[in-house]
Amino acid sequence: MHCILHLVPASAIQEGQLQCWCLNFRGHVTMASIKNFQLSATVDPPHNVSLEEQEKVIIRFGKIGKGIFTMDYQFPLSAFQAFAICLVDLTPNQVVNE
After folding, report:
1. Which of 34, 47, 52, 85 shows the greatest Cβ crowding within 10 Å of its Cβ?
2. What phi and psi values does residue 51 have, to the nearest 5 degrees?
3. Mean pLDDT over the full length of the chain
4. Is 7 in contact with 40 (CB distance < 8 Å)?
5. Is the pLDDT assigned to residue 17 strictly greater than 60?
6. Would the pLDDT of 97 be above 70?
7. Under a CB-based contact definition with an 8 Å cutoff, are residues 53 and 21 in contact?
8. In order of start, what are the domains of the chain with their CATH numbers?
9. In 3D, which of 82, 43, 84, 90 has the Cα closest to residue 60?
């Protein structure tokens, strides 16, 4: 039996002083950007995977300087898969007219 891996955005917390929703990048990301993201993996069906393990961030991408971004990833993603996810995030959204 195969497990299906779902990537979901990490949960943001509401920051009282800033009056906004924030993600904890644990010092890996130093600049605010619309491109910053974190994804967690959920497994369907769960197959004895703890909730803590399912909520672990498996890919983190964010801005650290002008035109400079950082990417952290871990298993079950390969470097190729993580890089492809980040490239999609950096690609400008374009509308295709048919």
Report:
1. 85
2. -60, -40
3. 79
4. yes
5. yes
6. no
7. no
8. 4-90 (3.20.90.10)
9. 82
Residue 58 burial (CB count, 10 A) = 18
* Distance of alpha carbon 7 from alpha carbon 13, whole angstroms: 19
Residue bearing tokens 């955005």: 9
Q: Is 62 buried (19+), middle (13-18) or exposed (0-12) by CB count in 10 A?
A: buried
Please tell me whether the overall predicted TM-score, pTM, comes out greater than 0.85 for this model. no
Q: How many CA atoms lie within 13 A of 73 on its CB side?
A: 15
DSSP 46: -
On whether the CB atoms of residues 65 and 31 are closer than 8 A, the answer is yes
What tens digit of pLDDT does each residue of 27-52 get? 788 888 888 889 988 766 556 666 66
